[in-house]
Amino acid sequence: MNLDRAQQFTIIIIATYIFLINNSQCLNIHINIKFQNNMFLLLISSAIAQQCLHPKGAPGFTVQKYEGQWYEIAKFQTAGGAFFERDCVCTNLQVFYEDNDLIVNNICRKNTPDGKLTEAKGTLSDENPQNPGQFKESFSAFQSVDYTVAFLGERNGEEYSIEYDCSKNFLTGLQYCVHFLSRKPTMSTDLLNYLIAEVNKQNLNQLNLPLQYTNHTGCWNFYE
């Protein structure tokens, strides 16, 4: 599993701190209270150095426009989400109402188009009335992330959206994903480059993560 630089730095600092505390007598090092406090503050500062962003929702956003099926074309994603989505192909999501709850069902296949089906249902709630398109996505009573549909529209006949989700805590650090979505499992290079440029204008890929393309080969034969 690949870790971003902030997480790597935090792990190195924690490991160094634990090593010095546990081995101070063997190394004949006097760890005074001031040093311990400074190390603790360094740990805290490294943990809060990066924060989730709060982009505006897409202009003119409505749930009705966002409902339906979307295909993931590419993404910028930190290690945490990538771990849970490893080996995924044919990634798509369905947005719909179920018992008055707004649901996002994240779907993929493991390794191949006929591989094991994986689904993760999230519930969107607490839409910001001053900023439509901003939600909280909950997968359980104890797990939620910020969820924003930052772009939603049509360009040269192609319907697209960009969804940004993010969470942050001391143990996992900053975890985010920028999903580039299309109503079809394809997207023109021109449109993808345009959307990447728009994302960069808002610095949504704040850790400069590499772009990961989603494999749809053989997934949707009716489009091929």
What does the model show?
- By secondary structure, the chain is of the alpha+beta class.
- 26% of the residues lie in helices and 38% in strands.
- It is built from five helices and nine strands.
- The protein has an eight-stranded antiparallel barrel.
- A hairpin with a 6-residue loop joins strand 3 and strand 4.
- It starts with a helix and ends in an 11-residue tail after the last strand.
Describe the secondary-structure layout.
Blueprint: H1 5-23, H2 33-48, H3 63-66, E1 68-77, H4 79-84, E2 88-98, E3 101-110, E4 117-125, E5 134-140, E6 143-155, E7 158-169, E8 173-182, H5 189-201, E9 212-213
Antiparallel strand pairs: 1-2, 1-8, 1-9, 2-3, 3-4, 4-5, 5-6, 6-7, 7-8
Helix pairs in contact: 1-2
- Bin the strand percentage: 35-45%
What letter string, H or E per element, gives the SSE order?
Answer: HHHEHEEEEEEEHE
- Helix and strand content put the structural class at alpha+beta
The best one-word shape is globular
Q: Uncertain segments of ≥5 residues (pLDDT<50)?
A: 1-7, 39-43
Oligomer: single chain
Number of helices: 5
Main beta sheet: strand number and arrangement?
8 strands, antiparallel, barrel
In short:
With 224 residues, the chain is an alpha+beta fold. The chain is 26% helix and 38% strand.
Main attributes of the structure:
disordered N terminus, single chain, alpha+beta, 224 residues, 8-stranded antiparallel beta barrel
